[in-house]
Amino acid sequence: MQNILNAGFVQGMVKVTSDMWLKGWDERNGGNVSLRLLPEEVSAFRADFYPEPRCIELSQPVPALAGDWFIVTGSGKFFRNVQLDPADCLALLQVDDSGLAYKIHWGLCHGGLPTSELAAHFQSHSVRKQLSQGADRVIMHCHATHFMALSYVVNLDPARFTRLLWEGSTECLVVFPEGVGILPWMVPGTDAIGQATADAMTKHSLVMWPFHGVFGAGPTLDETFGLIDTAEKASEVVVKVLSMGGIRQSITTEQLMELAERFDVRPWQAALQAERSDVA
């Protein structure tokens, strides 16, 4: 009999939360991850489900996710502890057929609820599922250090900020050619920030929450982690360059266009035409 603790989706969550904590992106209970699962990925582990799953109403309906399965991090759970007790730190849940509630079928074995940002995750999942024809299955939020630090010192125009990161590392334009969306500062854990993030996710797979962190979307845990890691590496380079006196030379617009052609990506034109977002 298969044990759900050995399931690929549980082990994947264990690995990515450990990697994020080791990166320093998820202090204490900071950050949250959700992975949309296919029914066939879940069905083999029904023997481990709770006989009477808890049913919880959603604050916002998600008809686009009706019937969908997810594994998510728990509210108040420390990422450094997921590897020690995934059954306490993670939750396997299914949205009901109306999209108005969900049931917890496994996990959170000592009680508790899924991440307080579940509404934001579900709103973004709804958008990315439709936009990618079902390919995007991960929403990931963390407090990437240098990415967050830049929000304090640079102009927060999305196109100009994107241009800054594209110039911060050659691979950035290839990894996120659609650029970075930026929200105004908003209270986390609310439907309002969830809707604003979902709106930005219609155009960008990376969204900055200024003075807080980043939301990323992608098809797999590895791809989404890599997306954020790439933006964070470029941010670290930019932070160090600014601390050494500022940018003297960088990748030109013509070179960015050559890069896009070589790797067959379509860069966000507003960012391609923008001046980089230097220190305000």
Polypeptide structure, described:
There is one protein chain. The chain has 280 residues and is of the alpha+beta class. It has two domains: 1-115, no CATH class; 116-279, no CATH class. The protein has twelve helices and nine strands. It has helices at 8-22, 39-42, 79-82, 86-89, 118-131, 145-150, 158-168, 172-175, 191-201, 221-243, 253-263, 269-272, and strands spanning 32-37, 54-57, 69-73, 90-95, 101-107, 138-142, 180-182, 206-209, 213-218. A nine-stranded mixed beta sheet has the order 2-5-4-3-1-6-9-8-7, with helices on both faces. Helix 7 (158-168) crosses helix 10. The longest helix has 23 residues, at 221-243. The model has no long low-confidence stretch (mean pLDDT 96). It is an enzyme of class 4 (lyase). The active site is at 117.
Helix content: 25-40%
Terminus-to-terminus distance: 60 Å
What is the number of beta strands? 9
Could you spell the SSE succession in H and E letters? HEHEEHHEEHEHHHEHEEHHH
Poorly predicted ranges (pLDDT <50, ≥5 residues)? none
The average pLDDT is: 96
Summed up, the helix count is: 12
Outline the biggest β-sheet.
Answer: 9 strands, mixed
**Helix-and-strand structural type:** alpha+beta
Give the count of structural domains: 2
State Rg.
19 Å
- Which of globular, elongated, flat, extended, rod-shaped describes the shape? elongated
How do the strands line up in the largest sheet? 2-5-4-3-1-6-9-8-7
Proportion of strand residues: 15-25%
Enzyme class: lyase
GO molecular function, one term: rhamnulose-1-phosphate aldolase activity
Catalytic activity: L-rhamnulose 1-phosphate = (S)-lactaldehyde + dihydroxyacetone phosphate
Binding site for Zn(2+): 141, 143, 212
